Description:
- The chain has helices at about 1-5, 5-10, 15-25, 25-65, 70-75, 85-90, 110-115, 115-135, 145-155, 160-185, 195-220, 225-235, 260-265, 270-305, 315-320, 325-330.
- With about 325 residues, the chain is mainly α.
- It has two domains: about 1-75; about 115-310, Cytochrome Bc1 Complex, Chain C (Up-down Bundle), CATH 1.20.810.10.
- The relative contact order is 0.08.
- Protoporphyrin IX containing FE (HEM) binds near residues 117, 118, 181, 188 and 205.
Amino acid sequence: xxxxxxxxxxxxxxxxxxxxxxxxxxxxxxxxxxxxxxxxxxxxxxxxxxxxxxxxxxxxxxxxxxxxxxxxxxxxxxxxxxxxxxxxxxxxxxxxxxxxxxxxxxxxxxxxxxxxxxxxxxxxxxxxxxxxxxxxxxxxxxxxxxxxxxxxxxxxxxxxxxxxxxxxxxxxxxxxxxxxxxxxxxxxxxxxxxxxxxxxxxxxxxxxxxxxxxxxxxxxxxxxxxxxxxxxxxxxxxxxxxxxxxxxxxxxxxxxxxxxxxxxxxxxxxxxxxxxxxxxxxxxxxxxxxxxxxxxxxxxxxxxxxxxxxxxxxxxxxxxxxxxxxxxxxx
Length: 331
Ligand code: HEM
């Protein structure tokens, strides 16, 4: 403001002042300089008188209502009054919430409809990933070390026993939860159009959940796991075409040393290679594939119009009451 009124001040004064002194003679030049300096000082004092109070007022207003400050509006870009638009923006403009739909069918997310089983399955998978990574700090997938590591975890590592058992119980529960989830989807007919594709993704997720369980079984390298995997992989001998005892297997040149069972175990018996292969499938291969499938599964739930949900119900008691929720405020 002061500079607009007195442009020469902005240029440092020295260059202009110097040339004035030179052209107008010493006295006039000095008077001009003094005048300009005093006008500049007056302007500054004026600015201080008007700007400081207005800034102070602004700051006091900010303390009274922080939602009006520049800092606040730079973070939160919309109002918070309870209108449908603001409720939608609250979800859409939040980095953590924006993956969720802005609006959902209230009846579709009732536990009595979903049983919460898809969500529970997912949370168990998160727990398994977390505890599994911690277990990896103590476990070596070798015949010499594996069982000893488990004993060490059980008896010496602080919280080792609870860590191992959290992993085991979450694994059991995940298998139960995924079956119940599938059962609920079946009972509510949610496999029908347009959700056929997601049902198929679900079937793959079920298979990978079971494979996670099966590959984890061998890792403690105890008798239970050893014999379970021996029996389980022996079934692979009878695979059609790919197993040496299966239909057409021998005709295709399958032997105990080149068939699908050999590929699973990395040998013809359950030994060190089988342990290492189980470990890699269990900790890296299957979790990555399952995670990608889960992302596709959740994305598909959105694309198919959200959770199927029952036909919207309104209780008699609700019919008289004013409606709550997004529509009520906007209507
Ligand atoms: C790791 C395994 C799985 C996870 C984490 C998972 C997770 C979920 C979640 C969170 C939902 C939203 C609704 C709800 O919670 O019920 C859902 C819906 C769905 N799931 Fe799964 N699911 C899994 C396995 C399966 C399996 C095995 C099937 C069937 C074979 C399946 C088929 C479906 C279908 C069709 C829907 C849409 C249901 C609807 O719109 O009502 N899912 N899943």
